[in-house]
Amino acid sequence: MDVLTEPRVYLVGRTSIDQAAVDQFLSDESTAWATDTDNGSELISELAGRVCYLSFGEKQGRRSNRDYLTNIIAMEHGSVLEHSAWNFIVTGVSRSFSHELIRHRAGWGYSQLSQRYVDESTANFVEPDIIASSQALHDIWFEAVRSSHEAYRRLAEGLAELIDREFPELPRRDKRKRAREAARSVLPNATETKIFMTANARALRHFIEYRGAPDAEPEIRRVAVALLEVMRIEAPSIFGDYETTLLPDGSIAAGTVHKKV
Predict the structure, then answer these.
(1) Within the chain, which residues score under 70 in pLDDT?
(2) Which of 95, 202, 211, 221 is catalytic?
């Protein structure tokens, strides 16, 4: 088994714009719209805002996408950010983290690694920094994790034999599932999980604001900061107002002056 300390965030999908349909809308409305970005997610948010105010053609005013969305955020008009969404895969995180993550519901979708179907006999584990900072505490943690993992392997093997003997008619897949779903009961919260998640821009901003704060739980704060680093590159017009700060313990926090957008 491996001990993990850093999450990984993979941006695997993003919003795109159908330019032909947008052009048809503008033609039907006898108007025009010019902007300076080809970023689909930023375009969608700007378009949503301009529909609200019908600020096309001569009423367009701000021509820079960055200027337009910066003003939208300053006005706390967060609803237009809900139309832009991204897809991520997050790895190197614990089951403790996922219990916290899934409290965020509005604007989010999740698909998480299933311990009923996936064999955890080769699982990895996520160690909190504060435990890793002390060799004595690390040794206690490591022994507890190792013992639990060994118990899982022994239970999974024993359960597989019992189920095969008691329920021979079950399909092989169901036998494995029944063994793993019972054996997983001894696995600790430190067990690594992998999550596919989808979130819109407003939901991401809320997550980064609250979970990136200095007083947030350290593991979820690390993920929030990692997401921010990805999104500041991916959609700077929407996430460019965030700043990161170095905390006394050497970890990073994130925040913005534009709260609760």
Answers:
(1) 62
(2) 211
